[in-house]
Amino acid sequence: MAAVFGALRQGAGVGRRWLRMIDRSLSRQPQAAPAIIQTASMIEGYGDVYRQGMADRNAIIDSPVKPTFDGALALTDLGSVVTEARAAAMPRPAAVLAQAQDR
Prior knowledge:
Elements: H1 2-28, H2 33-38, H3 47-70, H4 78-89, H5 93-101
């Protein structure tokens, strides 16, 4: 039971961090907010699929989002960068189907 509550606390922390990045976006680069919000769609399913989606989204938040807002990275069009990173991380339907057929 403690493991379940630990996982819930960790998930809540990740959610707060994501919301904080959206808040920072609204004040620093409002045009990037929709792209950051859409990173939520990367997290789905359970098990390995869930963990991979979470890792991919965290990678986008860790770089380029947070460094841009911290002033360590100078990106004027953060929204486009986030959109491209999200598209690169998401599995392609054809690749997923081919992988399923190989099983």
